[in-house]
Structure formats: structure tokens, C-alpha cells
Amino acid sequence: MVVFTPAYPPQIVNAYSTVRLLPEVHNAIIHDYNIGSFARFHRPETVISIHDRADFHGLSHLDIRLLLDQENKKEGFAIIDATTAESHAVWWVATTDECQFHAEEYTGMGYPPITYPGEALTLYHLHVMTQALPLEYLELTGGDDDIAWEILEGELARYDPHAPQEPPFDSTRNFTRKEDVDAFIPSVLIIASPGEWEWSDVARPLQEFPPGAVRLTAEAAKEAGLVPSWVSLYPFGRKKPQAGQTVEMQQPFDWDSPKWPWDGVVLGGNKTNVATAKRDRGLRGIRCQGAWPCAAA
What is the pLDDT of residues 210-221, one digit of tens each? Predict the structure, then answer.
């Protein structure tokens, strides 16, 4: 039987509302977020934590940013406003520490900062579909990317809330369609028992690795709700496993498997205990979670 290794605790994405949240709007936000975080596979990399603070109602993005800075909550966050229920979109507000650090580099490249009447500093943010926020969060807060790069690429500071709003970022992607998110479907680190894996001496998933790869058998993959995909073993010089050995590998989830229904997890929430979630930065795409290389990235 294929064994799924323990999942890493997801990272927290905090969201604050500028309006009083009705239960149906609160649930709709969780519903959209869970679709984008692939929560139906039971291993989301992030979980949204919604805060409906009365002292934030009616405040501007900058007001909330400064209040959170005073509370020593300097990480980026999402803002829910009066348009979220209809647009299914939120605002992502970057950390002011990084914005101030990179603002000089940004303007030095010839891009004028966005400033608003009465506001003391440039605030970088992005209007984004709630379903797209999980992947955008991982891109904007992790890996080799930084705030300056995202600004120069047009990710941040694209929208001005004081001007007519353009459609939210990634508004054309349907996160319930496999073909729209195929590159982001996560993989999982599993342990396959003898008879559940197969070896190829010629398969070469990545050119930088020597030939030789392993994957689940079609029968074992179907039973586990995964897609059998060739992956290289680490370290690079590792030889073919013996027939009686267990093998650790990454395999992608099967989008169409009945083991991962949409009902329940997506509609009812991801049931993640926010108190135990991580606050560290993450990486865009598929995390290796203890194995190398990833089956996809």
C-alpha cells in the first residue's frame, strides 16, 4: 500500500476586512481560496485566516498597513472590501519594510512610485482573484523573487484604488479547470512498497540527471489517487532499487481521481488549525517536501 509522508504545516495568509463580513461572504472567500490552494488534496501549502476587526472597518489600505506595523505584524496581508463578494477578488498589500527598501531601486529604473493624496509613503499592492491568491502569495513572498522584481514586472503597484479599477489579476484563469492549472497541480512525497513501483534504465525526467527513473505502477497510482510519473532518484549516482525494496518518490496528484472530491474539503473549508500553521516564507509551485528532485515545479 502506498504511504503518504506527513505534510508540512501550511503557511498562514492573513486577511483583514474593511467592511463587516456576512457569514455567506466569509464562506465564499474560504471556498474560493481553497480552490486555488488545491485544498481538496488535503495538503494545502497555505491557509487563509480571516480577521473581521471592527477597528479596521472603513480604513484605507495604508491605515491598516500602519496599524499592523504598530502591532509588529509586518508581513504582507490580504484586504477584503465591499467589492469582494461580487468580484471574488481581494487586495494583496506588501510589507512596508520591503517596499521602503526597494522603492529607491524601483524609481531609479524610471518607474514613478504610486502615491495617494494624504498618504505618507508608497504602498505596493495587487488586486487579485481570491482563487489566484494562494499561488500569488507563494510567488510574492518566496524563492528568488523579491518585491522590487515583482514591481518591475508589473505584478505590484499595477492598480490604484483611487482610480477606475481594472479587472483583478488572473481574472481569466479558471482554477476548477485542469487545463488552466495543470502546471501547478501539486505532487506528494510517498513511499511505495515492493511491487508498487517500476524502474526504467532509459527514462530521463530532467536533462541534468543521468538516465534511470522510477514511478508508481499504474495500478498503485490509481489506488492512491496519483499519476504515475517518471522521477529521478537522489543522490544522482543512486542505482536501481532492488526488487524487494521500498522506494521514496514524488508523484503528482490525479486531478480526475474520485479520491479527491470537490465537495466537503472545498465547500466546507480545509479544516486546518491556523494556530499550528507556519509563518515562514514558502516557494512558488511544488515544494519538494524532503525529496529531490521534485516531480514537477
Answer: 778 999 999 999
